[in-house]
Amino acid sequence: MADIQEQHKSVAKAVLGIISLSVIFFPSIFAAIRRPYTLDWAMYTYWICAFSSFVILLFAYYKSAFSNVVPIRAIGIGNLSAALSILSLFLFVIGNILSDQLSKPRVIEISLSNHLIEYDTYLEATGTAYDDDGDDLIWNWSIRPSTEAHANGASLIQLKSQSRSIVWWLGANMVPGVYFIEVTVSDGSRESDLLQREFRVKD
Question: Rounded CA gap, 105 and 184, in Å?
């Protein structure tokens, strides 16, 4: 019987150490996850269960130390709370990692300074995009000629800007016709679907 009680006491001590370490390292884990967070309930469950487990096991450990009686039921409840807290922390971390990897950003709108452009002038475009994880976005802009403009010698133009706004100068040798300004955004993990807007270069 004494051996069993000592085993329970050792388990309680070990679980206390695990819970303490998880609490110590939680700020670093939390800081590594990008906002907005998913599975917030798992984070709150972790803190509630971790706190409950710490209090119960600490009580059980010191009670056994001073009275030589190991409260086995209290240790069982504390261990269960500890298991739930670690499981909740695991779900919170994995859920946010998967959310960051699986949810792709979306381009919502492209606004143009003008839809009818003359030679030797500029076109200004600004994009609006959304990312569920709030990641910094890299913008990829291009100018695609229509079939007619392409037949007349126009070709795809890949713009160098990676920001949400661009200013593109139309040279005197620009082939007149219909063009499409296109954009995608990337959050470093996934790329959005392409969005395009039409404009025309005057004859």
Answer: 9
Question: What DSSP line would sit under the chain, residue for residue?
Answer: -HHHHHHHHHHHHHHHHHHHHHHHHHHHHHHHSPSSPS-HHHHHHHHHHHHHHHHHHHHHHHHHHHHS---HHHHHHHHHHHHHHHHHHHHHHHHHHHHHHHPPPEEEEEEES-SEE-TT-EEEEEEEEE-TT----EEEEEEEE-HHHHHTT---EE----SSEEEEEPPTTPPPEEEEEEEEEE-SS-BPPPEEEEEEE--
Rounded to whole angstroms, the Cα distance separating 180 from 144 reads 5
Answer yes or no: are the C-beta atoms of 135 and 105 closer than 8 Å: yes
Query: Looking only at Cα atoms, what is the longest distance across the chain?
Result: 97
Q: How far apart are the C-alpha atoms of 196 and 184, rounded to whole Å?
A: 9
Amino acid at 110: I
Instruction: Note down pLDDT in tens along the chain; length 203 residues.
Output: 455 556 666 666 677 677 777 777 777 777 766 666 778 888 889 889 888 888 888 887 777 766 766 677 877 788 888 889 889 888 888 887 777 666 788 899 999 999 998 878 888 999 999 887 677 889 999 999 999 999 998 899 898 888 899 998 887 678 899 999 999 999 877 889 999 999 999 87
What's the CA gap between 26 and 90, in Å, rounded?
11
The pTM of this model reads 0.54
